C-alpha cells in the first residue's frame, strides 16, 4: 500500500511519461495538471467519502463548517449524489440488496463498506478553458491487472463528477474495476453574476477573474454586459448546462470515450510514478481490460452514444439503466404494448414531450384518475382555465378540462398510462419545469442575458418569492448540493415577466391571463420553440425567438442517436412507470431503431421492469412523511441495474449468453399494515431476477415492423 498522499500533481503536460515497461503520450485532450489523492479506506475512502453505509443513510448531512475545504465539499457531494439516486429508506433494499456493505457477490456484511484506493481528477477540453469537462478515475486498491476492468460512470442528469458514485461507481468499485467518471461538460458550474464567483474543479468558490481557465464554468460576458445585466436583473446565476452555449449533450459520447482513455492512461501513469494502489504488472492496454460503458439516465444515454461513436474498440459491452437516449425518427416501425394499437409517432425528443408536460400537467393533475397519485399537491384549476381560454383544452368543468389535458399527453404525445401515476409528484417537485427551462437554453445556445422566455435563475425570498442574494453559506457548498439544474442548492427558477414583478416561477402570475396559473405564458413560450409556432394561435415564430427555435432544432438533431451499436453487447433496463424519460420515445424507440439498423446482428437486450420508475430515491419521502407514497407502489430499478451489470460482466468474461429481451414482473411491497408501522421490507420475492429463459408471454420481440411489449 502506498503512503497516504493528497493533492499530488502528476506532471503530464510534457507530452509523455514513463509507463511500466514502455511509454505513453499524454492524451491531447487533458488540460493542465492531473491531481491524484490516495484514500486509506479508514479516515476517508472512494465510495462513501469516509461516511460509510451508516453515514450515507443518515438524514443529517455531514458538516462543512463556515469555510468548507475541498475535502469537506467532496464528502458532501458524495453524500448528496449517492442519496439522490439510490433509495436509502429502511426496508427498501439498501443494506440488503445493494449498498456499500453488500459485496459484489450479494453477501451482506456488517461493515460500512469503505473502498481504499486512488482518485485522479483533471479537466478535458480546448486550451481556451471554455469546455473544461471534468474527468475522474477511481482505482480501488483491490484492482487486479490480470483481470483488469473499467466501468464508465458519466453523471446522471446535469450532476457534477460524483453524480454516478452510487450507481455505476459503487458497482465498479465493488467489482474491483477502475471507474471512469465524467460530468459530461454540465456539472455544477454555477456562476454568481452579482459577485462574479464560480466553482473550481475541487468545488471551492473563487473570483472568476482570478480563476481564469481553471473555472468549471464562467459565463462569457464582458464586465460592461454583466454590470448592465446585474443592474436590470440583480442576484442571478448562470449555470453551465443551460448557459455554456456549447450544447454539451452533443459531446456526451465523446466525453465518455475520453474518460476511458484517461482511465487507461492514469492506471499506467500511477505505475510509472510508483503510486499505484495495486500491484503493477506491465502496461495495461485496451485489449487487456474489459470495458463496460454504463450509468443511468443522462449518463446511460451518454454511454450509449459512446458505443455508437467508438472507433478505437475501447468498449466491450454496455449496461445502462433508464438511458436518456434520443433515437433518430423515421425508423418506420411501430411500438405495441399488449394488444393495443401500435404507436408510430414515437422517438419524440426529450424537449418535445417535456415541454408538452410543462404545458398540460398542472391541469391533468386534477383528473379523477390521478387522485391516487402520490404527492399530487400542485394541480391548478387556474391552469385549466387558462388552457381553456387559449383553446388548448375543452370541457365545461375543471374536471373535464383535466381529463382532456391527460388525454392529450397520453394519446397525442405517446406518454404511457403507467407514467400518469408518477407525473403529479414530478410536477410538485418541479422536475419537468426545470428540465424544460434548462434544455431550452442549452439547445438554443441562449445567452444568460437573453432571459429566454422570461426565465432566469436566482435565490428567492421564502415569504415574498422575490429574487434575493443567495445566502453565503449556501453558495459556498453549491458544488456539493447542486444537481446542475435549478431549482437546486437554494437557486430557483424565476419568472421575470410575472405580473407585479419577478417572482419564483410556481408562485408567479401570467400577464396574458391575469391568473396565478403557474406561469402558463412561460410554458407556452418554451413549447413554441419545439414547434417553431405559437401553441395557441399556430402562427409561425418570427424574429429572435424564431432564430432560437432554429438553433434548438439543430442542436436536437446533433444529439440524435443512430441506433448502430456495431454488434456491441448491450443491456437496457427501464421502468415502465418512468415519468422523466418516456419509454416510447427513449428505450423502446431505440430498441426498435436498433433492430431496423442492425437486424440479426444486434446484440441489444431490453428489460422493461413493471412497477418501477425513474426516481428510486423518492421512497425516502415515505419515511419523511410517515405515509405510503412510493414504497408501497414501486420497486427499486437500481436493483435491476446492478443485475444487468452482473450479467454483462459474466457475459464478457465467461461467454454466458445474455438473457432475451423481456418484461420483468415485480411485486411492490404494498401498504404498511397500520399508520404507526413501517412499510413491509423488500425481499427477493418482490424483485424476481431477469430470466435467462423467460416464458413466451414475457418476451419482447420485433417482427416485421412492430416492436411488441407484453402487457
Could you give a short account of the major beta sheet? 11 strands, mixed
In round numbers, the mean pLDDT is 95
Whole-Å distance between the termini?
Answer: 53 Å
Number of beta strands: 24
Please state the structural category: alpha/beta
So what's the overall shape? globular
Strand residues, percent? 15-25%
What strand order characterises the main sheet? 1-4-5-6-8-7-13-14-20-21-22
> What is the alpha-carbon Rg in Å?
24 Å
Residue share in helices?
A: 25-40%
* Total DSSP helices: 20
Q: What is the domain total for the residues?
A: 3
> What are the low-pLDDT stretches, counting only 5+ consecutive residues below 50?
1-23
Could you explain how this protein is built, in words?
- This protein has 711 residues and is of the alpha/beta class.
- It folds into three domains: 8-186 and 248-277 and 293-311, no CATH class; 334-341 and 579-709, no CATH class; 350-557, no CATH class.
- It has an eleven-stranded mixed β-sheet with strand order 1-4-5-6-8-7-13-14-20-21-22, sandwiched between helices. Strands 17-16-18-19 form a four-stranded antiparallel β-sheet, with no helix packed on it.
- Strand 18 and strand 19 form a beta hairpin.
- Helix 9 (350-364) crosses helix 10 (381-389) and helix 10 (381-389) packs across helix 11 (398-412).
- The radius of gyration is 24 Å and the shape is globular.
- The model is unreliable at 1-23 (pLDDT under 50).
